Amino acid sequence: MRVRELAAAAFDAVGAEGLSRVDFFYTPDGELIINEINTMPGFTPKSMYPQMWAASGLDYADLIDELIHLALNRKTGLR
User: Fold this and answer.
1) Quick one: three-class SS letters along the chain?
2) What does CATH list as the number for 2-72?
3) Rounded to two decimals, what is the model's pTM?
4) Tell me: the pLDDT tens digits for 5-53?
5) Which of 34, 3, 7, 1 minimizes the C-alpha distance to 20?
6) CA 19 to CA 52: how far, in whole Å?
7) For residue 62, how many other CB atoms are within 10 A of its CB?
């Protein structure tokens, strides 16, 4: 749960919009360090981004539908 909180905080801190993947390093002493915010992660069915969503219960087709829905309903910003 801590990774999700840190990822959301990093996303918000940079004013990101749309989809992204926040990558971390996990140190031997248990510390989480943000490595990067990837604003265009791989998006084939075998890429990590859709696989992470599938692990949470959102399959590839539903993920695409959700991203389109969110984009169409979002105020104009960086797009």
Assistant:
1) CHHHHHHHHHHHHCCCCCCCEEEEEECCCCCEEEEEEECCCCCCCCCHHHHHHHHCCCCHHHHHHHHHHHHHCCCCCCC
2) 3.30.470.20
3) 0.65
4) 999 999 999 988 878 889 999 999 999 999 999 887 788 888 888 898 8
5) 7
6) 13
7) 12
